[in-house]
Amino acid sequence: MKTRKIDVAGAAHPVTVSGEQEGLVAGAASVPGGDVVLLDAYSRAVIRSVDQVGPSVVNIEVRRPNGDRLGSGSGFIITPDGFVLTNSHVVHGAERVEVTLADGRHPDAHVVGDDPHTDLAVVRIYAPQLHPVRLGDSRNVRVGQLAIAIGNPYGFQCTVTAGVVSALGRSFRAKTGRLIDDVIQTDAALNPGNSGGPLVNSRGEVIGVNTAVILPAQGICFAIAIDTAKYVAGWLIKDGKIPRSFIGVGGQNVPLHRRLVRHYRLTVSNGVLVIAVAPASPAQRAGLREGDVMVDFNGQPVPSIDALHKLLTADRIGVESPLTVLRGTDKLSLLITPQESAQF
Predict the structure, then answer these.
(1) Nearest 5 degrees, angle CA 311-CA 298-CA 289?
(2) pTM > 0.85: yes or no
(3) Any idea which residues carry the catalytic annotation?
(4) What is the rounded CA–CA span in Å between residue 286 and residue 306?
């Protein structure tokens, strides 16, 4: 290593460089701002990450049985035995999927599991010498850090774009109406075909699954956090689905009268108005009626439909749970036993 002085904005600053950077540093004075070393470090970070993850990224095409192409997207290998993570909207309802590996191979493939509520799916491929990615930890992601997207936008395979993590904790709705939480926002350019590809950090770890872009905005793109994806992928590989519970009501968010909130010392100022009760559902058996307002489920406040969805998890299936409702001006406590919900 050598220490050289580079003239930046009229001042000499000592910079320690390696032998490989010697030539770059020598020419730094001719570059405005003297940012050659910084740019080279940025390039090296992107190149290193792409070299690590690129061989694991696949192209997925959805076809009819007669071979007609219905759509395409991206995915990435997460296990040595051929499990591939992608978006649900890429493969949902597919009768046939065709996967192309980075090295050009076309192994046999089929959809193992699909969860439209989180827009995630798992595909299984059968081929030797696969290179799985390293999955990161989205809890450690920070706003402003480097974000690299790899995918096949508009069919251009192995396309790389880079940017930064723009925001964390975003939410958006899946096609089923459920809210997907802890979504990563990035300005790494995404286009149709990028869906299902990896969002990668500078260490070559996957931190998200690229899933959506807001049109016609520029630079507002979203990726499902890898912590969510790991949980969902585990269930899809094991059971082919994500077990969830349901109670069989249709509802809408409504504000509560302030007198009722004060009188019953409620912890929420909004609730879920029951506008429909499905026949032979857990809600009907529990005595729930149209016009009731749900405010608490299993000891947890229910200020919105999204909050209720989050509480109707797999561990509530078949378990009798208390449900607090307001019926007119009366506060009632019902016992309800959620059932496993059918897949979308």
Answers:
(1) 90
(2) no
(3) 89, 119, 195
(4) 21
Q: Could you give the angle at the alpha carbon of 139 between the alpha carbons of 55 and 225, nearest 5°?
A: 50
Residue with tokens 């992601």: 141
Report the amino acid identity of residue 318.
G
> In one letter, which amino acid is 286?
A
Residue for token digits 């095409």? 61
Average pLDDT, the chain: 87
Are 60 and 99 in contact by the 8 Å Cβ rule? The answer is yes
Summary count for the chain: helices (H), strands (E): 7, 23
- At residue 262, the pLDDT reads 94
CATH of domain 55-242: 2.40.10.120
What is the full DSSP assignment across 287-329? T--TT-EEEEETTEE--SHHHHHHH--GGGTT--EEEEEEETT
Give 82's pLDDT tier (boundaries 50, 70, 90): very high
- Tens-digit pLDDT profile for residues 107-137: 999 999 999 999 999 999 999 999 999 999 9
On the question of pLDDT at 85 being above 50, the answer is yes
Q: Which CATH number fits domain 245-340: 3.20.20.60, 3.30.1240.10, 2.30.42.10, 2.60.40.10?
A: 2.30.42.10
